[in-house]
Known about the structure:
Elements (H helix, E strand, L loop, with lengths): L5 H4 L7 E5 L2 H4 L12 H7 L16 H15 L3 E5 L2 H4 L10 H16 L3 E7 L5 H7 L7 H16 L5 E6 L1 H9 L24 H28 L2 E7 L2 E4 L4 H23 L5 H7 L17 E5 L3 E6 L18 E4 L1 E2 L2 E2 L2 E2 L6 E2 L2 H13 L5 E6 L3 E2 L6 H5 L2 H19 L4 E6 L14 E2 L3 E3 L6 E3 L1 H19 L1
Parallel strand pairs: 1-2, 1-16, 2-3, 3-4, 4-5, 5-7, 6-8, 7-14, 14-16
Antiparallel strand pairs: 8-9, 10-11, 12-13, 15-17, 18-19
Helix pairs in contact: 4-6, 8-10, 9-10, 10-11, 13-15, 15-16
The chain binds ligand GBH.
Ligand GBH binds next to loops.
Pfam families: Glyco_hydro_1
GO molecular function: beta-glucosidase activity
Keywords: Glycosidase, Hydrolase, Signal
Amino acid sequence: SIIGGNNSLSSFPRNFLFGTGSSSYQFEGAYLTDGKGLSNWDLFSHKPGNIADGSNGDIAVDHYHLYLKDVELMEYIGINTYRFSISWARILPKGRFGDVNIAGIRHYDKLINALIGKGIQPFVSLNHYDIPQELEDRYGGWLSPQIKKDFAYYASICFKHYGDRVKYWVTFNEPNVVAIRGYRSGIYPPARCSTSFGNCSSGDSEREPFIAAHNMILCHSAAVKLYRAKYQDKQKGNIGIAINAVWYEPFSNSTEDKLAAQRAQSFYMNWFLDPIIFGKYPEEMKSILGSLLPEFGYNHLKNGLDFIGINHYTSFYAKDCLQSTCVQGPGISKTEGYYLRTPVKNDILIGESTSVDWLYVYPQGIEKMVTYLKKRYNNTPMFITENGFGMMNQPDSSISCFLNDNKRVDYMKSYLDALMSAIRKGADVRGYIAWSLLDNFEWLSGYTIRFGLYHVDFTTLKRTPKLSAEWYKRFILNFTSFEAVT
Length: 486
Ligand code: GBH
């Protein structure tokens, strides 16, 4: 219904942004090139046993060297925005404790100029998981309030150097995932957790996620204050944050399960958005967590963003574990909000399963998510900063089964259709960024899961368009020609 269906295309606003996404650690490689410092992910992925296929991002897809070619691939699709992140350790190898790395500054200058030369708006994240290891070693990274000084310094350098050309800034990619996976389950760096939550050598899964989150919120606010005070009037850009947003459908019609689904949103997503927009943590978090939640100072920033970035892929059911007892398992403890997350109800999955264990195809989820955020945050402008479909390598997978990615095309069609329906009903969504431009380093899964619209041969680094790249190209072309005739 999307292609040829001008009815639906007409719901996208005129200057809607269509893009593809990436991130520094997953794409760039060049991990010690031109003076880059070590990041927490460099260190983590080099430890044997951490990454599924024993790989790392040392080379990744060598976007650092091949970026001009990759900009051509973007031009071929016809996107008008490209989301990428700046590697903090490339700009400041030792944080504020060392010099600015001019070669790093120059690299992103060249990338940004190449994009603008093709009419592609840079959509830039300051942080997408990776931080200079120096900050970890000196004071424990996100656990220390000292990081606010570092983040503000880093942000000011980026605004100053690139803000004349960058109109969309994202402070953090998925700070909720960083807090949970870095400090509760400990499966991401700095790999801290209590033994009852995972197998880390140190940490406190009950407390540290909330401390790390609090410091990330304060860092976000510091960057926004700085941008608004010194740059925004002149540079006329927008600044926001990208949250990992999972849609939770109540497991049943019971009040308890409806409240559980609400709690799931609060303990995962509103945990960050409420303090940034309303200036305080969600009530239901406060009442369950009490003093585990840090306090904000009296002058904490409200309305601290220009847009909400939504990384949305999947949905689950949420079942109450506050009134009812649940089988012991992940997601149900006090600090997680007392709900059970499950993809099944009466033996039926919420949506088709995929080769990625957390990804279920439930397009209604994106419409419900956008509508939920619209209502809760008074229709703050939104961008879908990530949405996409992953495919895992199979023992017999040949390149042709990756190139004929009909499932990815179906996924994108159905999610875009559902997104349009939310927009038609008045949601202020201003862009859609497909994850990802290329197959890349998929964190703990290494190179075993592919999210790209372009296939990458990880030996030769050759890029080949998949069916989904061709489909997205036609989709954008249809939109543009529709735009031209109205
Ligand atoms: C995003 O989140 C990242 O921003 C991006 O870098 C990555 O490549 C992309 O998605 C694809 O994975 O794990 O069961 O709690 C990646 C990690 C995976 C964390 C989904 C949250 C939610 C369901 N996210 N997960 S679950």
